[in-house]
Design brief:
Helices cover 76% and strands 0% of the residues. By secondary structure, the protein is an all-alpha fold.
Length: 91
């Protein structure tokens, strides 16, 4: 089959540069993938810790509310009785 037009040979330096670039990309890909995996795992662990801290803070607020309500109820029991003691009988 005859050539339809003149063929232009590609400079060997250009083909070598393209080959080296392709080899570099393929060689670096596993390390980049592992680096990305480690970053994602670390980020997930960090988010988990933040969620734990937030949950603990919320539970502490609930505990404070429960304690203050219990103290208020205890103080109200002492003042709501009609006698001078806490006996509950009529004097």
């Amino acid at each position: 089959m005859p050539n339809d037009g003149p063929t232009t040979p590609v400079n060997s330096q250009i083909t070598d540069a393209v080959t080296q670039t392709n080899v570099e990309v393929v060689a670096v890909s596993p390390a980049q993938s592992l680096g990305m995996l480690y970053q994602m795992a670390t980020h997930s662990a960090g988010l988990s810790m933040q969620n734990s801290v937030s949950s603990q803070q919320n539970l502490n607020q609930i505990a404070n509310a429960v304690v203050s309500t219990a103290v208020r109820e205890i103080l109200n029991v002492g003042t709501s009785s009609s006698g001078s003691g806490g006996g509950g009988g009529t004097p």
